[in-house]
């Protein structure tokens, strides 16, 4: 079996190709082509096939992660969308939740008003109304509907969203409007609320469905075009796309519901990180992927991704109430700018020097100090020890930048300023990791930190030190973790329905009916994707809350017959989840299941483990590598130590290296502080043991507290 | 107490690190509170605040929920000190809500937890939340009440836990004397969980960085915020800036007797004083404003919003007591802004909204690119209640109807959004109708459209409710008579209204304030909230923008020609020539 993962990012398109028969893998990176992302995909695929000596038709599975949908939202260049909605409710998308983003601001913009998904002129109403109980209060005026559809056609919209109140209780009217549109305006891309998201909360549903229409035409065009050109290249298999829920979808499903593709990139990164840590035999995983401008943080207890709270799922400034893996992104990366503000406060980021002009040391016109410059000043990135093909750097420019912008203002040396900037960044990331771990009931001391991205492995040990994390894993190719993640994902579709039924006094037959229907739908979709019964796994989730509360928590519900015992088990699990989330539970209170969900999983990954080709030098010796001074934090003091700069690919599997050391590779640099031990495992991971370094730190803390 | 040495020697890196923690602690406290809470006014509307305070009650950090709440907590802590003095111990959990001792108003309960370290009181973790019912003379809201005692029960620094021990009797007493015991209890539990979390996080900070460093950092950040706002105040030339006289409709009993608001802003170096002398005396209903709990926080909020606009400033400037220090308010005791006990004072949101707008208008002349045209500056704050047939329990729903912002220099005003010192969320219709015997028939922008200006005013909303059973209605609203003001030649906005059974024979125009008004099954209530004023001469509005407004029904073709002097053809394109002629003609007329 030959499997290919292609991840399209903003700057680079990453590829990984795995030949299971010969047990070999290849990685490749080509520049992305934002105007038509499929170009880079074709280039990359052609080149990696040549590298591997195979023909495109030999590829058995093609997995794809793309930011196409995300970029349409961020750049606001989606389709002209029309909306057909219930009379009296033309402005649900305009009013939103009537809360402004900033408390203290008269000059802020409301993104949903300034950059509407559907302009008001294209939001048209028709007489119809379904009640909260699902009864028809006002029948649909079909003639009015037909006229409104014609109006939208005249207005040249290319997509239509249909959103009626309570369509999740009774979809008749929406479905009839769909038929009318198909008669009057068959070319229009359709996004029907009860199909996309049969779930209560009108603003969030309307916004999600409108967003789906907004990105629909372009995204589906992209997918179709990509399939076409790949076919022309001779690729026989169809493409599978990464979704925000951590599963993959077939091209057809993705084209109908592109909204599910929105977090594609970071999720694949998280999965790749989990995979690396699992290979190294760790279960509880925190992933940290630091790029040029931002850092993605994911927490996976027992190697399982957590889903974000459904009211926190937004993309850019728009609500999208679709299942998304809980990944936190903060503005901290290699290009983050350090500065002193008007009030004399030392700050780093979120502004970034980006790739252009980039850090001062690149000598491309950047004059402000960045995180990369700080690493240069501390000797962690060294001008004389750069790998072939990498950027030339000028440390004197980094020093000048820190001198002028920080050191002179705060009365410190450039070195202290650089160390300070890294410390502030480290703490920003520590804070973000704590928000997602400790504060959700998970103790980082039970976790392993996976460092990815170009800059992740530079910061990982310092962060692990702060959080008392005992192990750090650096995957073989930290810069292409997302592409690697694509190769360890199964198909997953999540279907949801608003139930709003008590579990304490349950109507068991109605719960059973809803879940069975969702399960049948899931089976149908998976079978249409060509999956066999043995490949299909169904999971159940109930969104529950105490009666009277306003927010649900996701509870994994058991398999098996839905009866009283099943309901009791769900209630029990909900109490536990509430306890974990809010540190309290109310066992005597009524529990209500607001939504029920079924996740249909199609197992498409082979059990075969990805292996790593050991290219280590037989006579490898640390002492043969050059040594330069590098600054480390030792007991909260900056200390200079002579440090070897070692090329990663030279290091044989099974080697152990005691820090300090700097391990360099093409797409990343790993910093190994004193007292940390790195070992190189058979999967190509660097596994760093922090226990010695932590015990040194903690014994000092202890002494400090005794002598206080 | 802040150690001088620690203060001077705190390194800039630690300072930055600790600030990040303060910020996330307050956020996390608010999140736990609204996610766990029971009443929709807390959990959906987020009518709450949470933060940390030093031993003197100075605010260290606050959540980005409703600004009115958190700015009031220093006053609550003063009130707690008044009642308890030094009788504050580790393990105490204190409930407080007396508006004459710091509370924002009676239904805004506060939970305050003292934080001890090494046996010494070092800080407070505290939050406030608006409960559905405080056990007053009527369910939910009320305006026409006789005195502060009729507004609800007052918990004068009552210890729900005393040194860690739960006072079961007081719990029973508190929740047996309100109409919504289950919701209130759930809310108070959520507030306790949130404050406990604040306490735990603050102690973790001390463990990590040491007490003196944390104290030094919080002091330094307050000084920082103070310095930043003083810098902005200093940029305004010294002098007195006066807003036009504003008028409130009435006090909710003496209908038609308008209440005067006089506002002037005095700048003296880096100090800013808001003088409300000349405003109405206190009134005989609850339409008065608690001074420290409401008048002050509203002033702090608007001054900060104008001078240190979060969306505009490059750096994050934390909201803390430093912001409050340069700002003073003068309001004579016995006036509407500073009533004498036992005057009732629970209905105050409309007045503080207007106060914020008056300050904005006063500064319009000197800060034309930081202020807005007149804002909706009101809230149609409505409560609906009844008794459930099956259980006999009360149902109560409190609704915050949004406003709109005035036109701004270079930008149109914001439509249909909570404004000024309010920033809550609306409740999903699909949630309300599943729980309440009410049905929403309309929730849209007002069809009259925007008030004209070079930059148009924001548009208010129209909402109609149909009642499925007999219900009790209280309206705490205003702005039915005095519209938001246009500035620099922009048009005035539109007043709000409430109408029972509109467009029927039984149509009835309602006052903005009603207490316990009986609504019958089948009645329809229509609420219209004000449209804000325009900024600048409409003749100067870009014709293309006028056309876009016509296409989106923000204005009409007729108004485009009559008010904006933009001629739009039947095919919805601009007649450039006719427009030019019309605009030049009107210039001649004006000159």
UniProtKB/TrEMBL annotation, chain A:
Residues 510-683 form the Acetophenone carboxylase-like C-terminal domain. Residues 205-494 form the Hydantoinase A/oxoprolinase domain. It holds the Pfam family Hydant_A_C. One of its GO terms (molecular function) is 5-oxoprolinase (ATP-hydrolyzing) activity. It comes from the Bacteria. GO terms for cellular component: cytosol. GO terms for biological process: glutathione metabolic process. This is Hydantoinase/oxoprolinase family protein.
UniProtKB/TrEMBL annotation, chain B:
It holds the Pfam family Hydantoinase_B. Residues 11-538 form the Hydantoinase B/oxoprolinase domain. GO terms for molecular function: 5-oxoprolinase (ATP-hydrolyzing) activity. InterPro entries: Hydantoinase_B (IPR003692), Oxoprolinase-like (IPR045079). Coiled coil: none annotated. One of its GO terms (biological process) is glutathione metabolic process. GO terms for cellular component: cytosol. This is Hydantoinase B/oxoprolinase family protein. The lineage of its organism: Bacteria, Bacillati, Bacillota, Bacilli, Bacillales.
